[in-house]
Amino acid sequence: MHQFDVIVRVTCATLLLVAAVALLRRGRRADYVWFAPFALCLCGYLAGNTTVEALQLPGLIGRVGVLLGGFVAVSLWWFCLAVFDWSFRPRGPVLALGLAWMVIASADRGFLGAGLADRGLSWILIVFGCLMMGHLAWRLYRDRDSDLLDRRRRSRLAVVVLLAGILIIDMAIDVLLGLEWRSQTYAVGQNLVCLGFAAWLLTLGGEGAPTPPHFATAQQVETDALVARLHRLVEVEKIHLDPALDLAGFVRRMGAPEKTVRRLINHQLGHDHFRTFLNAWRMEEARRLLADPARRGDKLIVIAMDSGFASLSSFNRVFQSVQGMTPGAYRRALQSREADGGVRSQVAGF
Which of 39, 169, 322, 330 has a C-alpha 20 to 30 A away from that of 261? Predict the structure, then answer.
């Protein structure tokens, strides 16, 4: 069993690191980026998840592994969110809860002082784990209808069920057998389950990466007609300015089967969510309004509503994510640029 334990952990760690490097070379999509810290944390977890002390890494490398292993739950949470939303970035309560977990996990493992180690902080982490699990389940359920990748959309419930099952089993063992209970067979099983689950998530994230499909002539004509219809809806009829618009309503206006519309937006336009598709057009409108001298005196809430956003907070969040600055900062930058241009024109005329 000792040799099998080592083989499993070394093989899992190697595969994780190779996959992380390969994904980072592929691009900067959220699931590619957030798999890297998850892989590192999972490698740390694998390094220490054995009941045989002689098989654990010694010295500084072992301590780093223990620290990273304490962060695996947070990195898994963020990676799951990234798999199901390619625009994901940890912010607000999601970032705060993740950082709080890291601090408490570090203290529980003695990295913030020996006095805090083994003081029951693991029970706080169990509560945090339940909160993260609940948030993930809510997000996967809330965004299910707008997910444009068929297989990923159908897998949302399975992800929640599997993660909940793993959490319930771990909690049951902690409660019934105590936090100090260890079994080499159980540890090896945990390592294999972690690798298998990570590999499955990677297949969900990789599915549906937008590549223009090849159609027969008749299909291409039909696709071109649908693209023309879509552009008319957003460019002429401005359907995206309706904050209550959902995928079902958009499909009705397109006059095509839902599966066809989903594939069109994903494969032709490169969006993995209907929400990101709408927000791309709403951002275009928002930038236009913020640059319009006639709308210079409008409050940002007015710009948000006229751009199709349901609230100022969602407008600020999306704008910051896409543009890298707040709407107010974007407007001030435009006005400053215009003022500088006016001064240069006056100097040149003089």
Answer: 322
Alpha carbon distances (Å) from 170 to 57, 133, 161, 174 = 24, 13, 14, 6
Is this structure's pTM higher than 0.85? no
Specify which residues 147 forms β-bridges with.
273
Which tens digits make up the pLDDT trace of 215-231? 445 456 567 888 899 98
Residues 106, 100: Cα–Cα separation, whole Å: 10
- With beta carbons less than 8 A apart as the criterion, state whether 275 and 146 touch: yes
- Which residues, other chains included, contact 321 with Cβ-Cβ below 8 Å and sequence gap of 6+? 87, 89
d(CA 153, CA 206): 13
The pLDDT of residue 74: 94
Token digits for 253?
């206006």
Q: Into which CATH architecture does domain 287-350 fall?
A: Orthogonal Bundle (1.10)
Q: Which CATH class is domain 2-206?
A: mainly alpha
Domain boundaries, the chain: 2-206, 215-272, 287-350
